[in-house]
């Protein structure tokens, strides 16, 4: 590990050296037509990412950093074909509102929304591809949230 300026770097992230613990509050699903397990699965996926790719230890008692938020968009839209194409496609879009609270360094607190989408052929039924697309989208959302929380980019 590299030590510099009060932070340590672990797998490309930078976390203040005095930050040792974290907690991910259960995310809420505020979308219409909710997928029953989406919020719980998302919360667990973010927990696993932080546990596996940072030196932080999970605790629900006075954590140094906390994540909370809600899924604010789960939407399927039909997209028109691009010029020269014959087939349209569908797009599944998921947005997550995140509150990142650093209880030791308030200047690091952040509120932001992350959005990601995945496309699938218009002749496919959403129910046939939904699990795969949710997995793909939430993987990227978790990656983006982790990066925003633990880097200064």
What does this structure look like?
It is a single chain. Residues 1-10 have low confidence and may be disordered. The longest helix has 25 residues, at 126-150. It is elongated, with a radius of gyration of 18 Å. It is of the alpha/beta class. The chain is 27% helix and 39% strand.
What CATH architecture label applies? 2-Layer Sandwich
Strand content: 35-45%
Fraction of residues in H or I helices: 25-40%
Report the count of strand segments: 9
Mind telling me the CATH class? Alpha Beta
What is the gyration radius calculated from CA atoms?
18 Å
- CATH-defined fold name: Double Stranded RNA Binding Domain
Q: Domains counted in the coordinates: how many?
A: 1
Q: Which structural category do the helix and sheet elements fall into?
A: alpha/beta
Q: Major β-sheet, in short?
A: 6 strands, mixed
> What sort of overall outline do the alpha carbons produce when their principal axes are compared?
elongated
End-to-end CA span? 20 Å
| Uncertain stretches | 1-10
The mean pLDDT is: 89
Q: Quaternary state, please?
A: single chain
Counting DSSP H or I runs of 4 or more residues, the number of helices is 2
How do the strands and helices of this protein lay out in sequence?
Blueprint: E1 2-4, E2 7-10, E3 13-16, E4 21-24, E5 28-29, H1 38-53, E6 57-58, E7 65-79, E8 89-102, E9 110-121, H2 126-150
Parallel strand pairs: 4-6, 4-7, 5-7
Antiparallel strand pairs: 1-2, 2-3, 7-8, 8-9
Helix pairs in contact: 1-2
């Amino acid at each position: 590990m590299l030590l510099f300026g009060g932070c340590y770097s672990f797998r490309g992230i930078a976390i203040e050296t005095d930050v040792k613990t974290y907690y991910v509050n259960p995310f809420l699903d505020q979308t219409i037509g909710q997928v029953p397990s989406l919020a719980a699965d998302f919360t667990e996926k973010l927990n696993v990412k932080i546990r596996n790719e940072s030196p932080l230890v999970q605790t629900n008692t006075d954590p140094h950093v906390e994540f909370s938020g809600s899924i604010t968009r789960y939407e399927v839209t039909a997209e028109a074909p691009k010029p020269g194409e014959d087939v349209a496609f569908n797009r599944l879009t998921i947005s997550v509102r995140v509150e990142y609270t650093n209880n030791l360094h308030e200047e690091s607190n952040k509120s932001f929304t992350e959005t990601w989408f995945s496309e699938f052929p218009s002749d496919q039924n959403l129910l046939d591809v939904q699990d795969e697309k949710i997995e793909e989208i939430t993987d990227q959302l978790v990656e983006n949230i982790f990066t925003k929380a633990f880097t200064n980019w």
